């Protein structure tokens, strides 16, 4: 690296540090546009999603933590996000100031202190925010994700299905108590743009929670976590044919339904973002590949088609507000991925002896 | 390469459970006009791996048919799964000469039905067993849709595993990669390595099957050849300068969750030094513990430090979760 490059890099880090400090002391960063940006038209089912990571921990107090995270949230406000995902227990995880679980737990219907602050942000920027905190319901504690809607209200809650043993065991991971594992059959949340599901951290090691969301038609899963999940999340995205936005203690990612990363946070920006299109499906390479020429011939750029050789799928999305993907698939007799597998399985079962 | 070299070199300097696995791809060798040409090309490519004294060699799916212009009916090319047919006999000679296991992916016929199969040949060139593709495509199944003169029957949903002299192996073929149950069945039955003859590479799908089931996968396809770690990592992959792979795999290795086991890693390393290799997969919170000493067994180390395997830990966690979860 040349001295000039080296100097630039150091200057960048210095400026980044100043920016972080400014955020903590409550000084707004310049250049954030919160009014709709002219020309930023989206397709009917396009949304901008953001995952914000927690890197920079530990923090001394919850106040410091919240200031740090809200500063990151302010950084991305100009993207006009539709959904922001925050990390697991984002207000208390790896915070030196340890409070009793009864002090930090918030209600699941009436926003508590942290959910209220997140709600203010959500209302101001008209976006959904996943607010992962400890909640209390019927005298029991849960490791939860509250989905805050565009008006700042609680639209839904997810209870971590698979907490670790140390989270469940009283006074082990959590001071003053333990959490209860969430129900195995939690619902997806219907928003105006599509169906959302949530998962948390250790859940990544099981498939049941993810499967249950898929069976309900989930289109986007928001994953708040302490650990990144790595290839496990790519696997869950592919096998459930849905997008995943992750927000963890070490990284944030946007993962495509094809199982490939679309964006990953880095040391330069501690968030990942993409505008994703929910009018999009996974199909199998065969027989789709043989029909691409005709599809291109008829629809041209009105369709967005990408072949993902590494996972053996093709994604087809509509780039035209007037065009839906399902009729196109029907027109060209292309089954969606799950439909194709189901059909093949039927034939196999019919011909398999016994 | 000197084809007259002595391949019966005694295997030395290997750990007790070290297995050298090889795979050759068909990339650049298709289409061809005749089966004879295909086999000649294949054997030429296989010669590249003999110097490594592989324990097992995997070759691609339906080796006598895939992208061969000379089309014959299923009845003409189907081989017996018990008595070696022409292709299996050719491969068996290599297996015997090289003292290694070889997959012979051919069409077989059994009880009047055809199967897309992989025959496992042992070091004596004898048939150790046959695997039938569990998930052939519908076009393979339906008579005369893909194959001339018939269609193949799907194999059993509980595919066999085979006890070799180096460990327990299973096999899967091509489209099997798009389903999960057949792979999980192999794991339940103790497979430590899965041999994967295929037409298509299906790279990330195979990586997922490897880490989900914690076994090695050796893949030989029409496009590439690869060896995958039990973590899904690529251990070896081919390219335009070598259309084959060969690499050592240590079966004396365990897959664990990192937390809270990582707190004991320092003590383990302090006691065992280079006799034990601990590799951490930070993003996934996994680790593998591998013995690099003939006298150290991983199972004993896990027991000594009270470390559960990944599966054991998830089982224990699930039990506690179920106990505390509200009805």
SSE topology sketch:
The complex is a heterodimer of chains A (354) and B (327).
Chain A: H1 3-24, E1 46-52, H2 62-77, E2 83-85, H3 101-104, E3 106-107, H4 113-125, E4 128-137, E5 140-148, E6 154-159, H5 165-168, E7 189-190, E8 195-200, H6 208-215, E9 220-224, H7 231-240, E10 243-247, E11 252-255, E12 261-264, E13 271-277, E14 280-284, H8 285-288, H9 292-299, E15 303-308, E16 313-318, H10 325-331, H11 337-351
Parallel strand pairs in A: 1-2, 2-4, 3-4, 8-9, 9-10
Antiparallel strand pairs in A: 1-13, 4-5, 5-6, 7-8, 10-11, 11-12, 14-16, 15-16
Chain B: E1 18-24, H1 35-50, E2 56-58, H2 74-77, E3 79-80, H3 86-98, E4 101-104, E5 107-110, E6 113-121, E7 127-132, H4 138-141, E8 161-163, E9 168-171, H5 181-188, E10 193-197, H6 203-213, E11 216-220, E12 225-228, E13 234-237, E14 244-250, E15 253-257, H7 262-272, E16 276-281, E17 286-291, H8 298-304, H9 310-324
Parallel strand pairs in B: 1-2, 2-4, 3-5, 9-10, 10-11
Antiparallel strand pairs in B: 1-14, 4-6, 5-6, 6-7, 8-9, 11-12, 12-13, 15-17, 16-17
Summarize the structure in words.
The complex is a heterodimer of chains A (354) and B (327). Helices cover 31% and strands 25% of the residues of chain A. Chain A is of the alpha/beta class. Chain A folds into two domains: 247 residues, Carbon-nitrogen hydrolase (Nitrilase/N-carbamoyl-D-aminoacid amidohydrolase), CATH 3.60.110; 71 residues. In chain A, the strands form three sheets. In chain A, strands 1, 2, 3, 4, 5, 6 and 13 form a seven-stranded mixed sheet that branches. Chain A has a six-stranded mixed sheet with strand order 7-8-9-10-11-12, covered by helices on one side. In chain A, strand 10 and strand 11 form a beta hairpin. Chain A is globular and about 60 Å long. The relative contact order of chain A is 0.11. Chain B is of the alpha/beta class. Chain B folds into two domains: 233 residues, 4-Layer Sandwich (Nitrilase/N-carbamoyl-D-aminoacid amidohydrolase), CATH 3.60.110; 72 residues. Chain B is 27% helix and 26% strand. Chain B has nine helices and 17 strands. In chain B, the strands form three sheets. In chain B, strands 1, 2, 3, 4, 5, 6, 7 and 14 form an eight-stranded mixed sheet that branches. In chain B, strands 8-9-10-11-12-13 form a six-stranded mixed sheet, covered by helices on one side. Chain B is globular and about 60 Å long. Chain B starts with 17 loop residues before the first strand and ends with a helix. At the A-B interface, helix 5, helix 7 and helix 11 of A face helix 6 and helix 9 of B.
């Amino acid at each position: 690296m040349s001295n000039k490059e080296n100097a630039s890099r150091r200057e960048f880090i210095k400026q980044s540090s100043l920016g972080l400090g400014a955020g903590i002391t409550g000084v707004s960063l310049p250049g954030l546009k919160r009014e709709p940006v002219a020309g930023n038209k989206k397709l009917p089912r396009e949304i901008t999603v953001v995952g914000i990571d927690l890197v920079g921990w530990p923090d001394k107090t919850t106040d410091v933590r919240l200031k740090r995270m809200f500063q990151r949230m302010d950084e991305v406000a100009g993207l006009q996000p539709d959904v922001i995902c925050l990390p697991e227990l984002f207000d208390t995880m790896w915070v030196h100031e340890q409070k009793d679980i009864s002090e930090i737990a918030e209600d699941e219907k009436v926003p508590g202190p942290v959910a209220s602050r997140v709600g203010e942000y959500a209302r101001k920027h008209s976006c959904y925010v996943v607010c992962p905190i400890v909640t209390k319901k019927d005298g029991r504690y849960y490791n939860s994700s509250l989905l805050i809607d565009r008006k700042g209200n609680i639209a839904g809650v997810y209870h971590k299905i698979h907490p670790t043993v140390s989270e469940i065991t009283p006074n082990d991971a959590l001071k003053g108590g333990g959490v209860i594992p969430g129900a195995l059959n939690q619902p997806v949340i219907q928003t105006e743009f599509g169906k959302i599901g949530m998962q948390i951290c250790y859940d990544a090691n099981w498939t049941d929670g993810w499967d249950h969301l898929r069976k309900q038609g989930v289109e986007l899963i928001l994953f708040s976590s302490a650990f990144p999940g790595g290839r496990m999340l790519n696997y869950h995205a592919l096998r459930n044919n849905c997008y995943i936005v992750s927000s963890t203690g070490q990284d944030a990612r946007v993962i495509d339904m094809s199982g490939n990363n679309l964006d990953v946070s880095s040391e330069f920006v501690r968030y990942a973002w993409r505008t994703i299109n929910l009018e999009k499906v996974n199909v199998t390479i065969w027989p789709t590949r043989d029909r691409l020429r005709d599809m291109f011939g008829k629809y041209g750029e009105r369709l967005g088609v990408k072949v993902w050789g590494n996972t053996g799928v093709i994604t087809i999305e509509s780039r035209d507000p007037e065009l839906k993907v399902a009729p196109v698939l029907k027109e060209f007799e292309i089954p969606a991925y799950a439909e194709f597998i189901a059909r093949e399985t039927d034939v196999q079962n019919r011909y398999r002896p016994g | 390469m000197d084809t007259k070299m002595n391949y019966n070199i005694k295997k030395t300097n290997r750990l007790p459970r070290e297995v050298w696995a090889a795979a050759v791809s068909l990339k650049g060798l298709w289409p061809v006009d005749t089966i004879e040409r295909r086999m000649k090309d294949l054997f030429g490519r296989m010669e590249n791996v003999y110097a490594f004294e592989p324990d097992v060699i995997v070759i691609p799916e339906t080796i006598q048919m895939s992208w061969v212009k000379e089309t014959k009916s299923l009845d003409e090319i189907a081989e017996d799964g018990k008595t070696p047919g022409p292709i299996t006999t050719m491969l068996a000679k290599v297996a015997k000469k090289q003292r290694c296991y070889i997959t012979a992916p051919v069409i077989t016929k059994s009880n009047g039905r055809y199967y897309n199969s992989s025959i496992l040949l042992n070091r004596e060139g004898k048939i150790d067993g046959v695997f039938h593709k569990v998930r052939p495509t519908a076009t393979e199944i339906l008579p005369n849709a893909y194959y001339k003169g018939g269609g193949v029957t799907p194999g059993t949903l509980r595919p066999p595993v085979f006890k070799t002299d180096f460990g327990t192996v299973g096999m899967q073929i091509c489209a099997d990669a798009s389903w999960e149950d057949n792979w999980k069945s192999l794991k339940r039955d103790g497979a430590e390595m899965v041999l994967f003859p295929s037409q298509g590479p299906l790279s990330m799908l195979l990586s997922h099957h490897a880490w989900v089931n914690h076994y090695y996968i050796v893949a030989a396809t029409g496009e590439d050849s690869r060896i995958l770690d039990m973590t899904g990592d690529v251990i070896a992959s081919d390219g335009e300068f070598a259309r084959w792979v060969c690499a050592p795999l240590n079966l004396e290795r365990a897959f664990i969750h990192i937390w809270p086991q990582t707190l004991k890693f320092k003590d383990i390393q302090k006691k065992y030094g280079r006799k034990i290799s601990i590799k951490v997969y930070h993003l996934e919170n996994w680790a593998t513990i591998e013995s690099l000493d003939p006298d150290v067994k991983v199972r004993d180390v896990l027991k000594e430090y009270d470390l559960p395997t990944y599966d054991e830990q998830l089982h224990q966690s699930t039990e506690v979760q179920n106990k505390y979860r509200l009805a």
